[in-house]
Amino acid sequence: MKKWQAVLGVSVTCAMLMNGCSNKAATSNSSKSADGAVSIKLMHRYQTSNIGKSPEDTAVLDGVERFKKDHPEVEIVEEQLQNEDYSIKAQALAAADDMPDVFIVPGSWMTNFVANGIVLPLNEELDKRPEWRDGYRPGTLDAGTRDGSVYGIPIAAGPTHLIYYNADLFADIGYDHFPKDWNEVMDAGSKLAAKGINLFSYGDKGKGYALSSWISALTDRYNGPAWTESILAGNGAAFTDAGFIQAISTMSDLSKAGYLNKDMNSVDGDTMVSYYFEGRSAAFVSGIWSAMNVVNNAPDNVKNATKLAVFPAAPGGKGNPLASSGGAGVYYSINAKIKPGPKLDAIMTLLEYMTGSQSAKLMAEVGGFPAFDPGQFDSAKLHPIALAAYEASAAADATKIFDLWFDASIVEVINTEIQSVMSGARTPEQMAEAVQQAYKTFLSKR
Q1: Among 49, 101, 169, 354, which is disulfide-ready with 63 (CB 3.0 to 4.6 Å)?
Q2: Domain map of the chain by residue range?
Q3: What is each CA distance from 275 to 50, 199, 260, 318, in whole angstroms?
């Protein structure tokens, strides 16, 4: 195995976790349980406590329970972790070459996991199951594929960029629609500010929100998808190109004008959305996952006024003004140590239960956007907000989500630099130079 290079940096905490996890993982990775039945160690970040709240958790865990009922001969040793805990532990186990049988791999980790022989190529297994293999929406397998080999099974897809806005607040300032160009955006921001209301609430405490929901979409508005493909190929585009700087400047202008909450870098996504619910902002930017949050938790007056939009076209931009950053971002992968046989067959069946047709229909019916095409489903069960989010997701021209495609070293620099730009400590040009240096370093090692 190649020397492991940590996706986000293995900290002292990870090292401590490795010492505590190594022995347990060694036994759970065996093919048989004590009584001779097949045993599968599953580690992921879906929570029983989120059933009924999160479409992904609801659908995936329903699949696990259906599998257990239909296949009692297979033992599932399941470990559910919170997102941050999962990230720390998974990287620690990867560094120790001690991963469980089945685990979650974000798209931005996939290159390192493939390069270090951690994940199993799945083409042969998927070819045995063509109906399942061919049921995934176009492009959803891409971030889990390297050099033609599929290493990850996608779970959910859909846009990471949608604007949830309070139509009543916009009507109060003379807009019967979300602003159609950036001059209107700034005008609306000024009129809302006069009423003591922020145009957008924004929460980037954990880093990553800005890149996923703002920067990916805005950069495409200015540069178009060809720029992104050139960056990924390393064949000419640069982060110091005008379009990337303009995208960051657009965000910086909103912050400098005072149209965002001042604590934008110190609050998380939940707080960001709560500001919208409280009427402290007229809109927020998020992915499809926030639709059910609005449905389940917004006050009735806010819920009834909420509509959806996307960023307007960029002046002189090369991108599709109706596009949204989207696609599948998280994948189930299998430990590369698993050999063909009953255990691998059982794992593939489990993954089909968790991500395939029945799971996809359930996810769609409770307000999610599955990677597997659910076909016809009972959309009457959906609240109008959730249905609008689903329809926007299905209709959108999906562009790449940068944090799933750019190398983790570049993602980390962008996530850190954008906080400095939004606080006024750095300029967009300075950020672009820093990201470009990280990009050059990455290219030199590739």
Answers
A1: 354
A2: 12-158+327-375, 162-325+401-445
A3: 22, 11, 11, 33
